[in-house]
Specification:
Blueprint lengths: L7 H12 L3 H12 L4 H26 L8 H8 L2 H34 L6 H21 L1 H29 L8 H5 L10 H8 L15 H31 L1 H7 L3 H37 L2 H7 L6 H4 L10 H23 L10 H23 L6 H21 L6 H26 L1
Length: about 450
Amino acid sequence: MKQPKYNLFTAIALIVGIVVGSGIFFRSDNILIATNGNVFLGVIIFTVAAISIVFGCLTIAELAARTDNPGGILTYAKEFISPTMGCAYGWFQTFVYMPSICAILAWVSGIYFCILFNVEQTLETQILIGMGCLLVLFITNVLSARLGGYFQDGAMVIKLIPLIVIGVAGLLYGGTEVHFTAAAISQITSTAWIGAIAPIAFSFDGWIISTSLAYEIKNSKRNLPLALTFSPLFILVLYIIYFVGISNLIGPAKIMEMGDAHLDYAANMIFGSGGAKIIMLFVFISVLGTLNGLIMGMIRMPYALGLDNMLPGSQMLARVSEKSDFPVNSALFALGVVGFWLALHYFTQKFALLPNSDVSEIAIVASYLLYLGLYYKVFTLWRKKEIKSLFRGLICPVFATIGSLIIFSGGFQSPLFLFDMGICFIVFGAGFVYYRFGVLKKN
């Protein structure tokens, strides 16, 4: 890798592009189901979830400002905790967290492709089309990192259009009144709404992946913290506008009844069939933009691990092609891992093993638990007076920790929570053991 390729706008586009794009569109029904159609409660949970993202971004930005080495979260763990923990974090990111989300987004790409082009929707068709989208984006990023960045910039702009248009139209012209009444507020005392935390966490997730491209962002010690600060606040405002707007336009009951098809229904209400096709095209591009952003981070993770001998075959994975100035072997390895998770997702959906959920949610919940170690390191930097600001060194880590624990608590609603968490921590532990008893002993 010869020189940085991405500017501040692309760094912002990467974060907004990964976070915004699919979750808000196909998780609104899950959120309303969990809150029993209570829009006000949904807004509160969006805001609470945003606390972990906003303060998490601000906290991680302190570490991002102190290094521009490749690897993102694994580099922060390696440099600020220990190399062994860096390997453990890296294995979790590479084998569980990133590929499971990539697999879900590939599937969602297939769903919206079928809606856009009136293809009969079967799980098999959705998965096959998703695989095609996955391959095209992988090849695009391998052949030209800059082209992948340009697509990310354009997709970010395009994806804002349906969010803003549908959200504002719903707020101004919706026929369903969404009341923030005392009765709605009283439902907060129920514990059922905790189940909405996991799908909302998915809607907000992905921001950490941008850090894996830190070394390819121009002046990353300045630009990445700026992008991590601005992006989550912008995303929260967009989400609330869209969620309240579409709930007002269609009604919570209709959204829960229609599931993922509610977006196409809303677009037809506003623009008719012709205009709805354009909106759905924007949404499809939006989802592809999210998938592209994840792929941009995912294909570099084996390379980052390989640089520190943290994987078997590290020498091959860390090799950069002279022709493309890109770690092609790392990308192929990443593609294989994502393919495994896509196959696993197919079986969980085919046999209804995860009702109102999917393979990515527990990995996302587990990731917030793992962030706590990094938040603590920022706190210790403040105690050592290496961070002067009380807000950045104490308040941000504390609120980021509270937000992460709230999101983690939401994962308990899954019937397979303990099993899934066990898988996450087996992979995390395997990375720890590999480095501790493999790499260190050889050295």
